[in-house]
Amino acid sequence: MSTHHTSSDITTTNPAGTPERFNDPGIPEHRSRMADRDPKAAKRAERQVVVLFVISILGTIGMLVAYFAIQPDGTTAGTRNSNLALGLGLFLSLMGIGLAAVHWAKTLMSDHERSEERHDQRSPDEVRVAAVTALKDGAEDSGIARRGVLKGAVVTALGLFPLTIAVPLIGSVGNDWDVSKFRHTMWKKGTRLATDPAGRPIKASDVTIGSVVHVVPDAPEEERRTHHWITEKAKSVVLIVRLDPADLKEAEDRKDWSYNGIVAYSKICTHVGCPVALYEQQTHHLLCPCHQSTFDVADGAKVVFGPAKRPLPQLPITVDDEGYLIAQDDFNEPVGPSYWERLK
């Protein structure tokens, strides 16, 4: 159904194509608010808005204090506490501004509905002057000019909030930006493969054809509790699969990277870094649940579907004298998605 507006009526076209005309109902009758009728209510609403802006100010100050006073100390608990303090301060800063703006608009600013007839995009000069006048009248109607405390609160809150972004950004300039760290993981020659999260070293005989095991570098329990090991683990998680050796399609330079059909690949998707963990035994396909990138484990973990552009990096493995699976070396390329200065 099409509708055509005029200044006094509305014309519609019904399904039969016959025009129908009825009177424009106009703008509904305005309902005044408590703050419009009672000066005390208006003053109370103003104080509430000021309090919300003050909460924002305190949140910004708290976030800046937390940034300098609660520094991560290298432990998981220290990092958690620092992030919690920063997040809480930023939350209060943003929440205060948002709630104050909404409450101000709903209780103090003009809520009269107005309508104007459509006209050319470029209005006549006298109309433009009238529009500027209307904007000034609107500012006057909002009460910002005569509410000094409210004006001070909003200016302070909006002026301080950018510091929550600028200070951490400036503070990060001196941080360690050595991207070569992305090229290496905890895997090295002789490191045993251990189940995740139990940390139990795994033997080749424990892995049956068709089974999938999530593994990490073997380390003492005390080390696995450290913040450094936990953060490095994020790059080092590996998924091992055992196939029938006859099903493997291995490049000539990688024929010794597997052991009796057992292959090991990075668990980090090369698209955006999600964990690749869904294995389809019949097709030998690994699926990333985030964006459905699919890799063929039997053929070098090459991409067979989805947005990923590179195969999963392979970890060369073998066994030690006791039959435990061990790494021959680190990955031959960086794991995960692309980043600056990556050569391949």
Automatic annotation (TrEMBL):
Protein purpose: Iron-sulfur subunit of the cytochrome bc1 complex, an essential component of the respiratory electron transport chain required for ATP synthesis. The bc1 complex catalyzes the oxidation of menaquinol and the reduction of cytochrome c in the respiratory chain. The bc1 complex operates through a Q-cycle mechanism that couples electron transfer to generation of the proton gradient that drives ATP synthesis.
Domain Rieske: 235-326
UniProt GO MF annotations: 2 iron, 2 sulfur cluster binding; metal ion binding; monooxygenase activity; oxidoreductase activity, acting on paired donors, with incorporation or reduction of molecular oxygen
Protein name: Cytochrome bc1 complex Rieske iron-sulfur subunit
Cofactor(s) recorded in Swiss-Prot or TrEMBL: [2Fe-2S] cluster
Compositional bias ranges of the Basic and acidic residues kind: 21-41
Family recorded in the similarity comment: Belongs to the Rieske iron-sulfur protein family.
Annotated TM spans: 49-70, 82-105
Cellular component GO terms, alphabetical: plasma membrane
Listed Low complexity bias regions: 1-13
Compartments, record wording: Cell membrane
Keywords: 2Fe-2S, Cell membrane, Disulfide bond, Electron transport, Iron, Iron-sulfur, Membrane, Metal-binding, Oxidoreductase, Respiratory chain, Transmembrane, Transmembrane helix, Transport
Topology of the protein relative to the lipid bilayer: Multi-pass membrane protein
Disordered as annotated region, ranges: 1-41
InterPro entries: QcrA_N (IPR045603), Rieske_2Fe-2S (IPR017941), Rieske_2Fe-2S_sf (IPR036922), Rieske_Fe-S_prot (IPR014349), Rieske_Fe-S_prot_C (IPR005805)
Keyword Coiled coil: no
PROSITE patterns associated with the record: RIESKE
